[in-house]
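Student: I would love a firmer grasp of how sequence relates to backbone shape in proteins. I am handing you a single protein, as its sequence and its fold in token form. I am told such tokens are a discrete way to write the fold. I hope you can help me see how the letters and the tokens relate. Take your time, and here it is.
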Amino acid sequence: MKKILKIIFFLILILTSIALLYIGNGYDMYKQAISQMSLEQKVQEIQSKENYTKFSELPQMYVNAIISVEDKRFYKHNGIDVIAICRAAINDIKAMSFVEGGSTITQQLAKNMYFTQEKKIERKIAEVFMAWEIEDKYSKEEIFELYVNTIYFGDGYYTVKDACHGYFNKEVNEMTDSECILLAGIPNAPSAYSPTKNPDLAKQRQRQVIEKMIENGYLTQEEANKILEE
């Protein structure tokens, strides 16, 4: 029995050491990114984009769709959704691969602002530290606003206004409910869900977003049916 306990203790010690090493490397990555350009400078750079879109210009349907499909506890967490991370970790372990990230909107913003898309543990940890700083300095509306001005919508569009002009030939506040939901689904896999390249897949993704909106209480089934008829 003592031998088993010693082995367990040794394994715990090894795992703890590895975890601390990754956390230290992730923190160093975060600090290096901040030292190269402060968060305030990075935000100003994004806000200076020609087609930068304010939160007040976004249709509520679009906001609800993004939150439903990307981060349903967006208004409740401090940048990190522990429930989503645990669920993703379980699914990743089952698949023995990074199949699910569990990233919040704030973490995705941190990644888009400072880091690469490479799936590394250190980068994910750096992302967490950056997300905490973003949440400390900016409101939820400001974070959401920055997010939709830094994500990729396919076809060379990197802001919600560019995507709206390109796909619908409209201003953001002129989108229909159907268009809002369609656009909200694209960033998950822009090359696959671009309506100009794969209209059938784009519609399929739109239905997935609608199902999430129903699940999260943003739409009734009757309202969803009307939107799908547009």
About this structure: The longest helix spans residues 2-36. Residues 2-228 form a domain with the Penicillin binding protein transpeptidase fold fold (CATH 1.10.3810.10). The radius of gyration is 20 Å.
